[in-house]
Amino acid sequence: MVGLNSKSVLGPLRRVVATAQNGLEVVRLGGLETDLTTSPFEIVERAPMYRLRRYFPDTDPAEVGPPIVLIPPMMMSAGVYDVTRDQGAVGILHEMGLDPWVVDFGEPDAQDGGWGRNLADHIIALSEVVDHVHRHTGKDVHLSGYSQGGMFAYQAAAYRQSRNIASLITFGSPVDTLAALPFGIPAGIATWGADFLADHVFNRLAVTGWMARTGFQLLDPVKTLKSRVDFLLQLHDREALLPREQQRRFLATEGWVGWSGPAVAELLKQFVVHNRMMSGGFVIKDEAVTLASITCPVLAFVGEVDDIGQPQAVRGITQAAPRADVYESTLRAGHFGLVVGSVAANHTWPTTGEFVQWIEQGGTRPARVDRMPQGPYPEDETGVSMSNRIIHTVASVAEVGVGVTKGISDLASGALRGTFELSGEAARALPRLARLNQIQPHTKISLSALLAEQRRKAPAGECFLFDNRVHTYEAVNFRIDNIVRGLISVGVRPAAHVGILMETRPSALAAIVALSRLGAVAVMLPPGCDLATAVKLGNVDRIITDPENVQEVLSAGRPVLVLGGGDARGLSVDPGHDVIDLEQIDPETVSLPGWYRPDPGIARELAFIIFAESGGRLEAKQITNYRWALSAFGTASAADLDRGDTVYCLAPLHHSSSLLATIGGAMAGGSRIALSRGLDPARFVEEIHRYGVTVVSYTWSMMREILDEDLLLLDGTHPVRLFIGSGMSPGLWKRTTEAFDPAQILEFYASTEGDVILANVAGSKIGCKGRPLPGSARVRLAAYDPRSGRLLENEDGFVRECADDEVGLLLGRAGFNADLSGGAMRGLFEAGDSWIPTENLFRRDSDGDYWLVDHKNTVISTVRGPVFTAPIVDALSSVSRVDLAVAYAVGQAPFQLAVAAVTWLPGRNFRAAELAETLDHLDFDARPDIVHVVDEIAVGSSFRPDPAALAAVGLPAPGPRTWYLDSETQSYKRLTKAVAAQLMPTRMGTGSR
User: Fold this and answer.
1) CA gyration radius for the chain?
2) How far is Cα of residue 121 from the mean position of the Cα atoms in its chain?
3) Are 868 and 859 in contact (CB under 8 A)?
4) Higher pLDDT residue, 262 or 549?
């Protein structure tokens, strides 16, 4: 029998009593009473959004060091930086000689209008805080923040363009939110979920403090369970619990505040769904902002086992802010351990103080601060390494005996991610294609109807950006309706042909959509064209213009409607002219007539008239609503455009690529449109970052204007993923993809006759036009004689279809929406079929891809046979030293000479042998008779190289930069006067230009 003594009985009894006493204290008071104190502070500034605390206000002003402002996350109280004085952030930083300030956003439910706060309110408030601290101290501010507070710090610094900010310091703050989502969640699922929550949950519901606390604890259930078990097992030992009691109480009850629904919804939309901290273009009070504007030093603390602010997501700042010097300090800690606890007290806050002192005083960089490695990072790198996660988790699990390991799902997440994102592309494309197939001639579809549809989906959504301002669908729709009222008041009715001659500006886009909403036809008049001819071809009865073009438009002899520039500007116009200022019409005074129905356009009706030059003549091309919708939905599908994209419209609005592909594709995809005032290299570099441009539209040689400037594209970092357009030469294609790696080129061909749209979606064949887009017209190549201009028939009388690599005329099958009155051909390949011929000659390779070889009117008729210009231009432009290349005819058919001209890139040495080498890849009969180097090749308003001026000169003059094709040696030799006289004695020019 075991004996009993007082120690064996009293020991357990004391433990039970102590447990009961401590437990009762926890129940009654919420925790154990400690002697630990927090740091003193005073409220320096008060505003509806915040209280600005200055800690240790009694410090001698002569001893006050550099100011550091600490920003809490939205869901956590400002006390996170002062849990205890000896181990809290403000206490440690003060002891190191810094001047700590803390922003207290307070409880939203305790503030007037607190539940209505949005994301921009927080950023504007922080910008004010920087101004206040700078005014109080006379020093630049070190701005820092934990988790979402660090994201706020980045955004405020970008909004201020680093003004009065000495450095940025963040703790576990993700930038590339989709690079490494918590717990390996696939990006496709995360964006879909965030989009749903923003649109359907947080627009109605806020997050209370207890919800924030519970959600945070559920993010790491193992650690939460471990801390609770530890607390219960040590409840008898008060001395063991007291050092961590303040931290426990903070996390358990005191440290959490509510989130306002609008702020959460905006955060999800901008920084999860669209990931705009990386791409740029997030919106603060209608202003587009990019982290690329940050130029001050940055220090980011990275938790090796932080599953919320994962390392790869945090390190996205190197790409997002390429002009900043970015440093990091890594420590073995989870998300909360970065700022609270012993690890933070021993590593985070001392290192923060050392970094601030280093920035202020210079000297040797702190030992625990390193240069952050540059991204991008491998796709299979998830941020928190598997070994770190397993070691950290298993250690926690083992301590409490739980046999479940968090993170096992990561093993399958990679496969799930790829599958979901691939299916996401299909999910976006298939409904668009199905919608195209459902369009009948009487179906209502138009530009204005599509914009109204997007407005209904997201009234506060961002429609377009211009001059650094963001215009929502609601605001754009309001402006359009006002313009419609103005047009009605001056007599514009449905089906009227109204010319538009305006610079690229919001009013120009609004005018185009307003005419669509009215059911009128927008006749897009190119600036600088033969206006009288264009007005006649477009059957224009009045013209809308802006103040800058009034004088030019007056010469057309049509009534003029002036739009844009605001209602305060004046017009210096002779009163005798028929000019009406639409900005002076009060839309509230205009009564809508009974015939007005918004968005009446149906598929078969004419929507736009655009102009193109062919053989030196201006031609009008008619675009129906169906033809526009085909380009719009086809572009959106081929480019995989969605609400996360920002499409940069570089081409002028009167160009077909802008109206059909850029504007149309963005509308169909729900993407933002970024309008530019014109092609300026410096503006281009600034705006693609500021707006977060993901897709850039181009025409012909437009991109060379950017690349020729040799501007520093912010160390090669940019948000662009795709260039879409038509006419880019192979050489420029290569230069563009090299400069904007890893962006790709999506080259289109869209016929103005019929419904043919080709797209090089894969992008692997440089210079190729690709294959027909789903939903566009079925195509065939008909055998064609370029000299006679006739289709070639076989023995049964039907037109012969071209074999692979045979040049023929591209035909599009006439659908039910096609206008068969304008040149449709029947019975070509079988009885009763209908085809609409294009004006272009193509060849089809063995893979089924189509290559443009020429316009049927520019084929050169030589004694050797027809010579096609596009293969010559493609071959010459592929030479690395060639800038522009053109091919043209000199003389009269059938004795024309094929002449090619090139210009050299600036700073490149001239090598004639390169031209000969590249032309050797063409068949002898396909080569130009003469090649010469000129100083300049003119480009048109659409940036298409124009050989007309060179052709007018005639045969190039002999010289050291002109060569002819010797038929005997089949090689190029220098052109002499004697040879030139033999080739064409009456057409010799005065010299190469």
Assistant:
1) 34
2) 24
3) yes
4) 549
